[in-house]
């Protein structure tokens, strides 16, 4: 039997117990799902629709990926290969940083979603800070919300997983199993299901993602900063079957990155940690 305790909790953001419930779920599953969050869902859906069209159009080639600044567009032919995998992911994406390029072909809807998600992120990091055991909190070089204050490194990734054509290499997935590099990831519900989390029992479980929900997960940097008290958790995006295979999937995760000089642990600053991981991904 699958252990229901390993399913990410669905936490009502209006509930007074939300901070404790969210952090409990992060601790035990690496994920939590928030309802009644402050993001404007209609704005998000408008951003999804226009980015679906843009990322599927030739105009994206006006914004080739910049390996130094790490912004711009990466098409399916150059997409990431997750650690330990042979096949590239079946996805295209655009990276937006506060000081980076933003395409003129789309409205500012995604930027407005970004601002809302960043405001929520400060609140969520405050919840985590408050719920950490004292011994773990004492190890932090500064409070978690402060780590991202003034950071120019928080990354908005706008992903489009194209419809499947049927000739994909065997074993290729929309996103192969991986862990995120950053502190926390804030991921408003994508346009279709597919996200799965690996439980401690070795079983994959779908992450609930109805419209109006928002997924939070722990990344490697938060695992590093909390000495493993909050584990970074493996997740993937599986390929749809049947009719759903003919539809693209759009999602817009925000990856919270501290300022480069923020000390995560005795061995790593945020800057040194990121450098190491980007090399492994083949993005540097
Ligand atoms: O598209 C998704 O739902 C998740 C994407 C993801 O895990 C990532 O880009 O790191
Ligand atoms: Fe991820």
From TrEMBL:
- Where are the coiled-coil regions? none
Lineage, top-rank taxon, reads Bacteria
EC number(s) stated in the UniProt entry for this protein: 1.13.12.19, 1.14.20.7
Pathway(s) annotated for this protein in UniProt:
Alkene biosynthesis; ethylene biosynthesis via 2-oxoglutarate
- Residue ranges of the Fe2OG dioxygenase domain? 152-258
Give UniProt keywords alphabetically: Ethylene biosynthesis, Iron, Metal-binding, Oxidoreductase
One of the Pfam families matching this protein, by short name: 2OG-FeII_Oxy
Q: Which family does it belong to?
A: Belongs to the iron/ascorbate-dependent oxidoreductase family.
Protein name, as recorded: 2-oxoglutarate-dependent ethylene/succinate-forming enzyme
Species in which this protein is naturally found: Sphaerotilus uruguayifluvii
């Amino acid at each position: 039997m699958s252990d229901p305790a390993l399913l990410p909790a669905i936490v009502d953001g209006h509930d007074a117990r939300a901070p404790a419930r969210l952090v409990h779920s992060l601790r035990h599953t690496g994920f939590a799902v928030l309802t009644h969050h402050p993001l404007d869902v209609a704005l998000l859906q408008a951003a999804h629709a226009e980015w679906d069209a843009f990322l599927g159009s030739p105009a994206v080639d006006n914004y080739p990926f910049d390996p130094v600044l790490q912004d711009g567009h990466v098409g399916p032919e150059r997409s990431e290969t997750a650690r330990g995998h042979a096949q590239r992911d079946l996805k295209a994406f655009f990276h937006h940083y506060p000081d980076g390029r933003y395409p003129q072909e789309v409205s500012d809807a995604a930027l407005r979603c970004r601002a809302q998600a960043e405001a929520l992120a400060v609140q969520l990091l405050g919840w985590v800070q408050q719920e950490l055991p004292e011994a773990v909190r004492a190890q932090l070089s500064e409070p978690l919300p402060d780590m991202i204050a003034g950071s120019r490194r928080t990354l908005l990734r706008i992903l489009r997983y194209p419809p499947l054509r049927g000739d994909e290499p065997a074993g290729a997935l929309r996103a192969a199993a991986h862990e995120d590099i950053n502190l926390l990831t804030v991921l408003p519900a994508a346009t279709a299901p597919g996200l799965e989390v690996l439980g401690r029992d070795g079983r994959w479980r779908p992450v609930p993602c109805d419209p109006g929900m928002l997924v939070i997960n722990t990344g490697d940097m938060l695992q590093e900063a909390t000495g493993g008290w909050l584990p970074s958790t493996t997740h993937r995006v599986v390929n749809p079957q049947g009719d759903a295979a003919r539809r693209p999937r759009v999602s817009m995760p925000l990856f919270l990155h501290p300022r480069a000089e923020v000390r995560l642990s005795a061995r790593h600053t945020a800057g040194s940690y990121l450098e190491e991981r980007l090399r492994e991904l083949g993005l540097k």
